## 1
Amino acid sequence: MALLGVNIDHIATLRQARREFDPDPIKAALICKKAGADSIVAHLREDRRHIIDEDIIRLKSALKVRFNLEMSIAKEIVEIASKVKPDQATLVPEKRQEITTEGGLDVVKNFTKIKEVNKILSGNGIGVSLFIDPIKEQIDKTLEAGVKIIEIHTGCYALAKTKAGIERQVKVIKDLTKYAQSLGLTVNAGHGLKYNNTKTIARIPGMHELNIGHSIIAHAVFVGLERAVKEMAKIVHGK
Ligand code: PXP
């Protein structure tokens, strides 16, 4: 089945509550890897509300799994990524006041900028992925921009309340995954995935990787990080 990318932002959120050193996101990343994470995801936000510059430098040198840096297309962040050189950069939209990433990156609206950022990051040996809403036009523009990886925003699926609503969202994600794959794109997905709604997405044929953060870290508060990751890895890996 699919691979699991664990987003460790909220380990850093807890640390930033006191602006001290604990809990250390790098220590957390190493536990996630041991527990079955296939990659580690961290979002260096422009306001540095959780992950800070030093974290991504330390993650890059300490990690023995793929490091996927979530980031905006702002010039400052692109320059930092180009220096740190994570294995992958997932480009997301970013608004200062938002609680979490709201909606996918609008590839149609930001086409020229995304094409330029892709060129810079790819030129530095970084794999580029675009976090997009499940909309055909966004996929077409991703391909046109020369980007080879997408992460489908599963927020609408996660928020759907009725059986019919959930089924509708699953169909949209399934159909567009198939379409993107037919164009040669690698398809990942994430956002709002929890222990009770991840299996359906992990089972979509050819789904490459799921990026999950909040539900794992929330569960870890009660059962410990290693067990929380192991339980999610079991669902995603289908073992
Ligand atoms: N993928 C992307 C692009 C995200 O922005 C986020 C949230 O940081 C996630 C996945 C993980 O979402 P969640 O924390 O809801 O699991």
## 2
Amino acid sequence: MTVATETEYEVVIGLETHIQLQTASKMFCGCSADYANAAPNSHVCPVCLGMPGVLPVINSKAIEYIIKLGLALHCEIPEYSKFDRKNYFYPDLVKGYQISQFDLPICINGWLEIEVEGRRKRIGITRIHQEEDTGKLTHTNLNGEEVTLVDYNRSGVPLMECVSEPDISTPAEARAYLTKLRQMVRWLGIGTGNMDEGALRCDANVSIMPKGSKVFGTKIEIKNMNSISAVHEALGFEIKRQEEELQAGAVLKQQTRGWDEEKRVTVFQRLKEGSSDYRYFPEPDLPPLQLQADYLAQIRTSLPELPEARRDRFIQEYDLSLYEAELLTGSRATADWFEESLGEEKTPQRARATANWILNELFAHLKEKGAELDEAKIQPRQLASLIDLVQKGTITPKSAKEVFEEMFATGREAAEIVKEKGLPQLSDEAALATVVDKVIAESPKAVADFRAGKEASLNFLIGGVMKATRGTANKDVVTRLLREKLS
Ligand code: ADP
Ligand code: MG
Ligand code: ZN
């Protein structure tokens, strides 16, 4: 009898991520880089159209932005770097070459910390280099003819490429890495990081090798995923496919595969070209970059408090859980919103209440509307005044939810809505006592039962008071009054 043995594999993943920079102008010319709503080929000039004899000029904002990301990802910024020409032909590349960086990128040797299932891990950043985007091709049918339309508005838009070390071991880690990277890009305000708009694009390299092996397997690159979850899914599919191939005795070839969004499979595109095919050489029209120490220091000083530091401070200063702090620092806008609504009241109790309102009510309402935080009508200080009303006992937590609904929908002040709805919580004892007396008088059986030792009857009486006050009575006060009057 033979027993089939299955080899156990180890997964190796490295991600190459292209990130558009949100600068006003393009990388090497003065054209507007904001092409989102522009008519095709309206943001072009001789430079980004690759006309002969024109000269590129480096966009200093783009350099500042890539350095910001590099510093945030713990990279070294060498004093010298340079631009190179990457030569290849494709209709979206008007010059016949892309200005990129080859051997001397602006940022090297950094890392990004991820957390998966409570485990923290550093993923190495090999390099981040500066380059320019290509034009956009649209394959379509025009009057019954298959045609390809070209739009060069995107040609020359600043693009960074961030290359990770092959330190990622699972699709979940890849997802965490991309989520953190995108968070950082948005946090620094250097790009939108929107994958569905192509402002962040990820090529995922994945190989498998027998567990414990020191030699990496054949790397396969996957392209065309337009969301982080698609990257996660594509990797999962590809790992399984490679395992099946190897189990069947096949030899894998280095190749580029595409993610088919509809069929949810990776499909072969081409065998991978090596970097020698690009004939990189130094860009003769641009001087090497020399980055002075004081210039770097200035950029470092300009960095905002970064997500991890802010998360850890939230835990320290406000006694929040790691989970809460992670969510509240998911974006800079959320973290700002939270701290703005806290205002000067920084007690852990207040922080917890505020965090709860934001993470539960506010997020749920935004999600339901498909809206972003910056579109919310309710403002941080308005939430604070709602929390004040609850903490002072003016309204019940239950009424507060109702008031929140209205605040979220209209952006009106809590106090105004409370007044209009006649919601003040009855903690005024004299007013409540009248209601309590009335309920006692109307419920002789419950009263008798309670006096005979049946505790549950008290709940019935409390319920009667809550009903009579339409849920606005302060339950603690009601309970105390009932006990006093019935003892
Ligand atoms: P290429 O020149 O083909 O683009 P690179 O050496 O630049 O290859 O690596 C591209 C990406 O692939 C990097 O993120 C790197 O970490 C990753 N990578 C390299 N080797 C492997 C491998 N065997 N398996 C998975 N990923 C890998
Ligand atoms: Mg590469
Ligand atoms: Zn231009």
